[in-house]
Structure formats: structure tokens, C-alpha cells
# Entry
Amino acid sequence: MPDEIFMNAIKTAINSGVKVRVIIPGKPDKKFVYNATMSFVQELIEMGGEVYLYNGFMHAKVLVADDFAMTIGTANADNRSFELNFEINSVIYDKKEIEHYRKILDDIFAECKQIDINYFKQKPFWAKFKQLFFRLFAPLF
# Structure
């Protein structure tokens, strides 16, 4: 779950014309964390980002920026990974390698289902309440 600084960076990117696409697992490993995550997903979509559900569990952490640079590693977009845990990511600037991973990501995106704002409007009150309730604990996850 991203912190406020990370969400502001994403918002700035979107407002600058950057296309932001995120894949999240369709099957969570921890339901309470997943509920909090979904509240951030709704916010990201409202900002103009695109979010896709992978059909299953995915634990990959990859970011590609303009086919110029990419990072791949263990760090999640959350406070624990950025501040507490010992995480490692590689930053790659090799265009041929980035192109290789871009093709893999394009194949994964093709397998995913895009979530739109209607996904959240159709949720029952209890599901929305759980998302907001667990978001209160996001800094602890």
C-alpha cells in the first residue's frame, strides 16, 4: 500500500501526461491488506490511472519508465518496504533488456481485466466499509 508521498508522485505523473498502469493480483494472499489496497486502487483510478486485475496471484514488482529505465526487485510500494525492510531492486537502463520485459508485461496485461470506477460503484456498502476500515491501518502493513 503506497504512502502519501508515493501517491502524490503518481498523481503528479498522471497530471503531467504519463500513462500509469498497475497490475494487482485477482487473488490476494492477505485479505485485510487486499481490502486496504483496493481503496488505493479506487483513488488511483479516480486520478486517471489504469488498474488491471491479474487472474490469480502475482508477486512481481516491476516498473518500466518510457522504455528508458526499469526496476525489478523485492520492494513493494509501501512504508515497510521503503523504510523498514531490507529490500533490493535492480535498475536497468539497457534498451534491449527493457524491450524484452516490456513484451512480457504486454502479454501479462493481455491476460488481465481492467478495473474501472463502476467496479467500485457496484460494490455493496459492507465491502466499501471494509476497504476504508483497513485503510486506516495501511501505515502498519
The first strand starts at residue 21 and ends at 25. The beta strands are 21-25, 50-54, 62-65, 69-73, 89-92, 113-115. Residues 31-47 form the longest helix (17 residues).
